[in-house]
Predict the 3D structure of the following.
Amino acid sequence: MQDDFQKCSSEQTLFIKRSVGENILIVSIYVDDLIYTGNDMSMMIKFKKSMMQAFDMTDLGKMRFFLGIEVLQKPGGIFVCQQKYANDVLKKFAMSESKHVKSLIVPGRKISRDVDCVIVDDTYFKQIVGSLMYLTATRPDIMFNVSLISRYMSKPTELHLQAAKRILRYLKGTTSYEIFYRKEGEENLHAFTDSDYAGDEDDSKRAVSWMSKKQPIVTLSSIEAEFVAAAASACQAMWMRRVLRNLTHTQDSSTVIIDLVKDGEIELVHCGTQEQVADLMTKALKLEAFHKLRKKMRMLDLAEVN
């Protein structure tokens, strides 16, 4: 490690350099792509100069794209989205002229294995799901539904294909929606967690968090399901906290919630149904509730912001 950089112990592609006072330079590297930021212009200029002397590099200026993610920098914060990619996906699957819908799924409708319906081309279905999975990096509003249809990659039926196309139709009307990160705000991390007990009619495993995946075990009660979901959320929150603090820490996963609460690392707070953002990841919601929670996740229509 040169020039007094320190590797973040919890994120191997993140490097941090500190100088006098609270001056800091943060560098993130992915293969041959590199982005950097900081609060000291002289540190950033010196870093850029040293890198261009050591390597054959092209300066692309202020970040606008990174790994397929679009970044729009505003005075009050930044927007991140995949609008171009979303439009490309719609075009690829001939859905650019489709009629858009306001909800991803009919509220209360269950999608499960369908033995009676006609089986469709699994290659085509997998292509749609794969394209949608990449979009979830900036579209948490579609995460639950994409996770749901991804369970039926083997022998998908017309029912599953129609569910996938409905997601595309939803995207048709929301390509301009982006996540907004405010420049200034509170520094505390807040995590919302929820479980859909016995929500999967096929095997009773639950979808949890933005990663929205099935839990690895079958739970026997809603309390147990909530505990497993909370543990997963706590692990994710602690990882983010370690990245921010650049700390190393290990925990016994079987007692993670109890230990973290005892140590004062996290605080468990009851969240009412109306404010439970995690519901967006676990169930089909009524339109009004869906729009409310989507906004709480700081997903805004860029056209309306401008």
Residues 6-61 form one domain. Confidence is low (pLDDT under 50) at residues 201-212, 247-254. The longest strand covers residues 24-30.
